């Protein structure tokens, strides 16, 4: 079926099976490989993208659902001012180890701060609870988000 | 600038931007995808295999395609690469289907029918013990345990248990292979490129110069990518040779959990003899580790388990007996801590429970038994280095306000403390056998590290480059690592046993010191170094006497927990960790290891329930198997006290595995403290606590 949607700001028309996963469309059809498959069932968050500004697991979004939607992937986000602030904050806080979960955490952090520019520590924990990290114990990821809020004053 | 001052991780930016190339991000021309057809029976004879008609361009690969020996090479090479006539666990690989799309190979694999004749199977450690299905058995002793038991004023017997644990590296296992000019190239997510090369040499029956193993960015490992990748590397290489195509084999999470190695479940039995002053004078420890269906590297896991079983304590008389048992379940393998977290959990909880049962303060009781510099270890090797455990304890008590909190005890809130150590580097004579090699190459104003130790998330690239850059007074950007390609780097040994910083970093430091003194000799030159074991260390691998490890890193954890009085849900509020790892090469990287290890240890102790029922895993996806999320992790405070080690680079010892052993006994002691009941098994679940409370009432 033919589907028209916006991908990283550009209108795209694709002809795919309506059940094809957004994750596969991104990775295989558009070669956007920053989104990762960690579980394929919406538990780990490694494939998070923003759909109309909200974090979704791209492994759970079928193509048929994409019509008219706007999708932002890590590739489209990384050069934005907010993307740059989060990048620096994650580096400075030491929030990256193996890195497989990291692009998903960046997108989840963007979604969290978009909704709530001044989250409490408990709200940061809750906002990131859809993303798994097995390396860091999360402490430095929490710190990175707080650092981004500080550095990006007014950006969110 | 001191070496410990943190720098930015060298690989963080490309990972954040999603530009790092993991195996799944690679591309090949016309690749085939592989799907593994697995045993659905825990123990059976394969009678017949019915294959469907294959579409053009699809292939079935079986044991007959293996050019060399059908065994995956490791410590005990007993696992067939593809099953022969018998299967020993659910999930054992039997065939590979290759085809141009994932969907197609999946469909074909679903149509394959296998006829089995079921054979008797053993599912639990207890059953296996009854039937005496022992893979390996070790024992050693110290002093005169029999006399000491005869003279003991009091004897206490107890049993402790630990459960399965799955690594859940965020990147599932994956490999790719292609044949170019008669050389087999294998790419993938791995800890040990030369283990993979060794396994391929044997399975393919070709010399190592016709094999190249290339590590791709590795998305976490924790031991899960120590020996297991050798198996799937063989699968991809055999398939690439058989089909004349590049092939991809990337597991989805369910498949990864079902068939990859896990932490050995254990039962540990103790008999302790105490004197009139309530000091444990003699201890008898009997360790039972569940190796699963194949032995693999279980012997060395068990060795670390038995040599760590006395933990930080000096028991004057000792009897240690350890056995690996076969069960018809997925094989157990390497997992952060490598057999030590099990025995340290048992011994820490034994000490805690003995103290509480005698009405003594657990910390005071433990401190009466700790090792000091000059003491003999459990295997009679002298503790050469300064032991600063009392300082670590004091710092942890101060940072956590433990004394105050243990006195003001409220029901459903508790605090617990654990003391622990980790033997640095390989067990016994492992380092002498491997003889790690490194090369440092100068090209004008740049230096390249040629090593096989990999970056897998732990920060090895940053730390090793920093050791060299710091020594040579070069900016870190001028010092880089060669790709981990067995055709380009020497074998500096596997990335395991917390040996990378201390052993490989130590070799790099020596080479960098030499390079510094010879810097102006030439524009381009190389220095290579081979590991030499310090001469004052002794080890007899037949009697298990001497220095099982060159040195130890040490730690203290304090855990604070609350329990929901209605649901018995366990909330780990805070964990404080204080460590002696010699010296931090990079404090933030080190802190990252400690925080991650605390979360993984706390997960194993509470959340991470994995059971197997008649050989089948009950939890086999991330919905059922819960690892700590951002909502579950405690607040973590870490601190370090310098205690430089003479033979480590800048004084560094080991670090990565150490925290895995600390959190479980601290958390469980805190839960025990909250409810006033002894606990002897992990994971501790709300259901278990409710049941125990009911019994108490």
How would you describe what is shown here?
Chain A is built from six helices and five strands; from the N terminus they run ββαβββααααα. Chain A has a five-stranded mixed β-sheet with strand order 2-1-5-3-4. With 697 residues, chain B is an alpha+beta fold. Chain B has a seven-stranded mixed β-sheet with strand order 3-5-1-12-9-10-11, sandwiched between helices. Chain B has a five-stranded mixed β-sheet with strand order 7-15-14-13-8, with helices on both faces. In chain B, strands 16-23-24-27 form a four-stranded mixed β-sheet, with helices on both faces. The model of chain B has no long low-confidence stretch (mean pLDDT 97). Chain B has 18 helices and 27 strands. Classes of the chains: A alpha+beta (156), B alpha+beta (697). Chains A and B meet through helix 3, helix 4, helix 5 and helix 6 of A and helix 1 and helix 16 of B.
Brief overview, please?
Chain A has helices at residues 22-29, 74-77, 81-93, 102-115, 121-127, 139-151, and strands at residues 2-7, 10-15, 48-51, 54-57, 70-72. Chain A is of the alpha+beta class.
Offer a few descriptive terms.
heterodimer, A: 156 residues, Ubiquitin-like (UB roll), DNA polymerase, domain 1, 2 domains, 5-stranded mixed β-sheet, 6 helices, 38% helix, 15% strand, B: 697 residues, Aldehyde Oxidoreductase, domain 4, 7-stranded mixed β-sheet, 27 strands
């Amino acid at each position: 079926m033919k589907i028209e949607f916006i991908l990283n700001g550009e209108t795209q028309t694709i002809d795919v099976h309506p059940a094809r996963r957004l994750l596969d469309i991104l990775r295989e059809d558009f070669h956007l490989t920053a989104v990762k498959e960690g579980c394929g069932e919406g538990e780990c968050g490694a494939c998070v993208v923003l759909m109309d500004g909200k974090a979704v697991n791209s492994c759970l979004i079928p193509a048929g659902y994409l019509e008219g939607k706007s999708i932002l992937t890590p590739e489209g986000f990384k050069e934005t001012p907010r993307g740059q602030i989060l990048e620096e904050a994650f580096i400075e806080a030491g929030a990256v180890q193996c890195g497989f979960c990291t692009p998903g955490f960046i997108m989840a952090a963007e979604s969290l701060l978009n909704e709530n520019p001044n989250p409490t520590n408990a709200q940061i924990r809750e906002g990131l609870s859809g993303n798994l990290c097995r390396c860091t114990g999360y402490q430095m990821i929490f710190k990175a988000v707080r650092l981004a809020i500080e550095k990006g004053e007014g950006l969110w | 600038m001191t070496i410990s001052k943190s720098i930015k991780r060298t690989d963080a930016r490309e990972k954040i931007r999603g530009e790092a190339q993991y195996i799944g991000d690679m591309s090949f021309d016309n690749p085939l995808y592989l799907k593994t057809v697995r045993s659905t029976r825990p123990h059976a004879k394969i009678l017949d295999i019915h294959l469907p008609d294959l579409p053009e361009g699809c292939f079935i690969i079986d044991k007959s395609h293996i050019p060399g020996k059908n065994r995956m090479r490791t410590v005990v090479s007993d696992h067939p690469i593809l099953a022969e006539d018998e299967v020993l666990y659910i999930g054992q690989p039997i065939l590979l289907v290759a085809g141009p799309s994932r969907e197609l190979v999946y469909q074909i694999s679903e149509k394959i029918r296998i006829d089995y004749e079921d054979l008797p199977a053993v599912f639990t450690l207890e059953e296996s013990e009854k039937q005496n299905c022992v893979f390996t058995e070790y024992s050693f002793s110290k002093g005169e345990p029999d006399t000491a038991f005869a003279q003991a004023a009091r004897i206490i017997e107890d049993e402790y248990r630990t459960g399965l644990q799955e690594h859940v590296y965020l990147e599932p296992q994956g490999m790719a292979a292609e044949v170019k000019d008669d050389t087999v190239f294998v790419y993938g997510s791995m800890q040990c490129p030369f283990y993979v090369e060794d396994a391929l040499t044997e399975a393919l029956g070709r010399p190592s110069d016709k094999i190249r193993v290339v590590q791709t960015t590795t998305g976490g490992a924790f031991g899960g990518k120590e020996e297991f990748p050798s198996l799937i590397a063989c699968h991809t290489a055999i398939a690439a040779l058989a089909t004349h195509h590049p092939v991809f084999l990337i597991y989805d999470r369910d498949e990864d959990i079902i068939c990859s190695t896990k932490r050995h479940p254990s039962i540990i039995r103790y008999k302790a003899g105490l004197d009139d002053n309530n000091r444990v004078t003699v201890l008898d420890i009997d360790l039972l580790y569940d190796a699963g269906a194949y032995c693999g590297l279980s012997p060395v896991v068990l060795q670390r388990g038995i040599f760590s079983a006395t933990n930080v304590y000096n028991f004057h008389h000792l009897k240690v007996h350890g056995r690996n048992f076969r069960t018809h379940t997925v094989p157990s393998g390497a997992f952060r801590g490598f057999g030590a977290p099990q025995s340290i959990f048992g011994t820490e909880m034994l000490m805690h429970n003995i103290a509480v049962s005698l009405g003594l303060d657990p910390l005071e009781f433990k401190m009466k038994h700790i090792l000091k510099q000059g003491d003999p270890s459990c295997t009679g090797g002298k503790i050469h280095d300064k032991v600063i455990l009392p300082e670590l304890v004091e710092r942890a008590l101060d940072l956590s306000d433990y004394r105050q909190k243990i006195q003001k005890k409220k029901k459903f809130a508790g605090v617990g403390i654990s003391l622990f150590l980790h033997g640095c580097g390989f067990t016994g004579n492992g380092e002498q056998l491997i003889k790690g090699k490194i090369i440092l190459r100068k090209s004008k104003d740049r230096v390249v590290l040629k090593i096989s130790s990999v970056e897998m998330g732990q920060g090895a690239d940053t730390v090793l480059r920093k050791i060299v850059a710091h020594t040579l007074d070069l900016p870190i950007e001028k010092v880089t690592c060669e790709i981990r390609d067995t055709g380009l780097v020497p074998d500096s040994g596997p990335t395991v046993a917390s040996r990378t910083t201390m052993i490989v970093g130590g070799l790099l430091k020596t080479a960098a010191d030499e390079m510094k003194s010879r810097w102006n000799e030439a524009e381009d030159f190389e220095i290579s170094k081979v590991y030499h074991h310090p001469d004052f260390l002794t080890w007899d691998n037949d009697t298990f006497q001497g220095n099982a490890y060159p040195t130890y890193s040490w730690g203290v954890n304090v855990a604070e927990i609350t329990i929901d009085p209605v649901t018995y849900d366990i909330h780990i509020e805070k964990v404080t960790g204080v460590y002696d790892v010699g010296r931090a090469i990079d404090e933030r990287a080190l802190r990252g290891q400690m925080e991650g290890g605390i979360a993984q240890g706390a997960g194993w102790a509470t959340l991470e329930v994995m059971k197997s029922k008649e050989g089948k895993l009950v939890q086999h996806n991330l919905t059922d198997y819960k690892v700590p999320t951002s909502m579950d992790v405690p607040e973590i405070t870490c601190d370090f006290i310098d205690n430089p080690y003479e033979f480590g680079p800048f004084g560094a010892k080991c670090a990565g595995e150490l925290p895995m052993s600390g959190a479980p006994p601290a958390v469980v002691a805190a839960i025990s403290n909250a409810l006033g009941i002894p606990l002897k098994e992990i994971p501790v679940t709300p259901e278990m606590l409710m049941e125990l409370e009911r019994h108490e009432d």
